[in-house]
Amino acid sequence: MWRACLVGLVLGGWSCTNSSSGSGDPSAPGDDDETTGLPGTPGDDDDTVIPEIEIDISWTEVMDLAEVGTLVSLVAHVESNNTAEMSYSWSSDKDGGLGGGSVPQSGDVSLNTDVLTLGWHQIEIAVDQGDSDEVASYEVGICKWPDMETFDVGTPAGWTTFGDAYWDPGGWLEVTGNSASRAGQIYKTDDKVDPGNFAMEFSIATGGGLNGGADGFAVNIIDAYDVAELTTIVNAASNGGCLAYGTQGGPCGTMPISGFHVEFDTWFNDYDPTAGNHFAITLDGDPTVSYFWVDVPSLEDLAWRQIRIEVDSPDVTAFMDGQQIIQGTIPGFVFDGGYVGVSGSTGWATNYHRFDNLQIYDQCVVPE
User: Are residues 179 and 73 in the same domain?
Assistant: First the structure.
């Protein structure tokens, strides 16, 4: 760039011009300078395009089902091609807003809540970044287990009584009563326990008997096609040491069935695993084979005991009053489900055989 001052008398002073080397005024006609000037000025041919903001939401941790009152945890990962701050909010189409905040630098946004009500929920995360937003949703079911059977006001509808079993006004089922040569069964016949893994809890009490107390009782799950077939199996079960569920093995019969049994045995038979009072797990209507067992010397004290059974085929775990008493594997065992009930018997010796507070954990149901 050079500055030229032309000597001359122009209105009595100096005349000066600015110029680029080899050219005149850049804006003058014929100027071949290709400079476009500043962006946005007339004649600017800058093709720069500001990209549209794109927000991406992906699920990294999800859960499909949760029991009512328990924690629901979801994690979404949020990314954007823009560096501006992003905010998010969680909501349920059933329960409304569930909180929100700013998306952290990691992009991971978590929902942890235990307040969702029963039913199916579309859980939604909405992400906002200035003039752009994005939404993603995931369906979660909030379920409940079947209600506990308490037997407080009589035998519930849907249960069928066989033999000498009856409802006691004390608020429980009595399987035999404290009399000799009795046998009784009572089964929930309006529904079945589902096949697969499950747990169940119940209360039992036995004792107060004559002649040393006997014979015992069992909680059973029998895989029958329908109530008619269940009735045939119940009628075929032998009494005495077979505890009114045994259909095969030793003196109990020759009818094979598919069943899972939790025994409380208070009289020794030569096929029992021990001469004392005991708890045992047997299968398929055969009391003569105890897969697991444990002595319970005080079983006949007529005190209520809380029992919990967990089946994760082929594994079985049992608890009595909160203490684990059995844990083991039955090779090849697969739980087939079926009708749940209780059976028991007395002989020359007797006991009360009480059953109460049955809770089955086989299918957590989401109300529609």
Answer: no
If you ran DSSP here, which 8-state letter would residue 251 be given? G
d(CA 284, CA 247): 8
Tracing tokens 């094979």 back to the chain, one arrives at 256
Helices (H) and strands (E) counted in the chain, each on its own, are 1, 24
Number of structural domains the chain divides into: 2
d(C-alpha 255, C-alpha 304), whole Å: 33
Q: What is the DSSP string of 135-201?
A: EEEEEEEEEBPPPPB--TTSSPTTEEEEET-EEETTTEEESS-SSSS-EEEEEE-S--BPSSSEEEE
- Residue 180 shares a structural domain with residue 61: no
Burial of 141 (0-12, 13-18, 19+ CB in 10 A): middle
- Tokens 């939790």 belong to which residue? 262
23: β partners: none
Pairing of strands 119-129, 108-113: unpaired
Q: Which of 117, 143, 169 is the last residue of a domain?
A: 143
CA-to-CA separations, 2 to 16, 20, 223, in angstroms, rounded: 11, 7, 105
Residues 25 and 93: their CA atoms lie apart, in Å, by 69
- B/e letters for 115-135, b = 16+ CB within 10 Å, e = fewer, are ebebbebebebbbbbeebebe
Render pLDDT for 190-240 as a digit per residue (tens, 0 to 9).
Answer: 999 999 999 999 999 999 999 989 999 999 999 999 999 999 999 999 999
Q: Which of 78, 79, 76, 105 is nearest to 91 (CA)?
A: 76
Same domain, 229 and 314: yes
Q: Do the domain assignments include residue 3?
A: no
Whole-structure pTM value: 0.79
Regarding whether 225 and 109 lie in a shared domain, the answer is: no
Paired sense of beta strands 339-345 and 323-329, if any? unpaired
Token pair for 326? 């059995």
For residue 234, give the H/E element and its range.
helix 227-236
* Cα–Cα nearest to 264, from 202, 210, 198, 222: 202
* 327 has a pLDDT exceeding 70: yes
**Is there a cis peptide before residue 215, judged by omega within 30 degrees of 0?**
yes
Report the distance separating Cα 242 and Cα 253, nearest Å.
Answer: 9
Q: Which residues pair with 55 in a beta bridge?
A: 80
Beta-strand runs (E) in 296-338: 305-312, 315-320, 323-329
